[in-house]
């Protein structure tokens, strides 16, 4: 089953959905991509104008007087039209190139939007992981302080020594030292989210929470052959290939003669009242042929277009292969990160059990402080590793959604979009 357009809702976080919705509206990169679509659409209109006759209107009035002679004047109103006959398909090929480029700009926007959505999700999960690790660090400080107090009590009655207390104080200080970097990480992730949302780097209120509270959506990729139609980067490469293919056609047609038709018609009269009478009408028709003979730029233009086509052909092939590689890597990462989380959860359970037993035995005086220190450090390390394993798993899920095309997040169009016109591909 392919991802839904709003695949991120499967994580069960309304806050994440709110952040992504704002990023789709306000992200600067998405806005720039939309502006490039406007430019590409304008270029389509510009290139398409060559297939439409150019019509211009003109009006003129003159008056002249010499000494001893009456005023002599004239009036004229005319329309003129010019049109290049596209015998060799140069103008149509140029238009097809612009249309394919406009389609490429739309796919490029999808690539940008998908990257932004994935970045918001990954940054949000990293923020949650940092919050979770900060809570763990504070809990570890509290546990280390409890052990230190217990050692101090044993020292007071002579069953412990100053070395035991110094060793435990070092553990406490180490745990306290882990807190500032985590707090810095939280703040950095907040500013990163603000940038993705198009906001200035001010404090972004994000509730976050524990990663364990999120849902784990199931991702089942579809048929491999369908992947090429769902990845916006593959469709973008396909459109770029079609655009340069049409450019080759236009560059080849530039070697052939161009035929221009011009026509002019209107009214001309010495008196305004008789300007539009049938006797005042005039017209002219003309045709011209232009053949390039010694234009040294034409062979270079053709070779350039062919080189660009071959470049985009290799880029399309790479994009197609990369799509399958991304899915394969994402599947491996998902499977292994889930396995890592499961094993790390077991490690935390075992480490906590050992730590609890060591605390009881320490209070009973049946275990030395070295054993307590070892179980304590093992638990603290296992808890941090578990938080990082959870983060890796959720980011692997995002990686899979992204590898599958992400449901074409920002546009709201049907996943995969409309196929390219055959006239732009079968050349």
TrEMBL record:
List, alphabetically, the Pfam families matched.
OEP
- Record GO terms (molecular function): efflux transmembrane transporter activity
Lipoprotein: is it a keyword of this entry? Answer: yes
Membrane-spanning intervals of the chain: none
**Entry GO terms, CC:** plasma membrane
* Keywords linked to the UniProt accession: Lipoprotein, Membrane, Palmitate, Transmembrane, Transmembrane beta strand
* Family the entry assigns: Belongs to the outer membrane factor (OMF) (TC 1.B.17) family.
State the protein's name: NodT family efflux transporter outer membrane factor (OMF) lipoprotein
